[in-house]
Design a protein that fits this description.
This protein is mostly helical. The chain has one domain (8-90). Helices cover 41% and strands 7% of the residues. It is built from 2 helices and 2 strands. A two-stranded parallel sheet has the order 1-2. Helix 1 (34-42) links the parallel strand 1 (8-10) and strand 2 (50-52). It is flat.
């Protein structure tokens, strides 16, 4: 699939944006919330989309959801650290 022609969206890192993504970042869309995707489709702004979702990370149990949120938040902090390290090493 040519992702220069088909927008790629992923809910990895518990969000749609790129801030915490290392491998699956999309570069040309400003998507932060599910409503942004709904509006994109509803207004006909994207004829095709490739959407990667992780239903195994969804929870209907509040305590499991809280645990997953804290765990993913810690992981996301590590990802920010990796991104900063890569920029320092690259001299950006």
């Amino acid at each position: 699939m040519d992702f220069s022609k088909v927008p790629y969206l992923s809910d990895s890192s518990r969000n749609w944006g790129n801030r915490y993504k290392i491998k699956d970042a999309h570069s040309n869309l400003r998507i932060r919330h599910t409503d942004d995707i709904i509006n994109l489709i509803g207004h006909g702004l994207a004829k095709r989309l490739y959407i990667l979702i992780h239903p195994d990370e969804w929870s209907s149990n509040y305590y499991q959801w809280q645990f997953d949120l804290v765990t993913q938040s810690i992981i996301n902090l590590g990802k920010i650290g990796i991104k900063l390290h890569k920029k320092v090493v690259a001299g950006i």
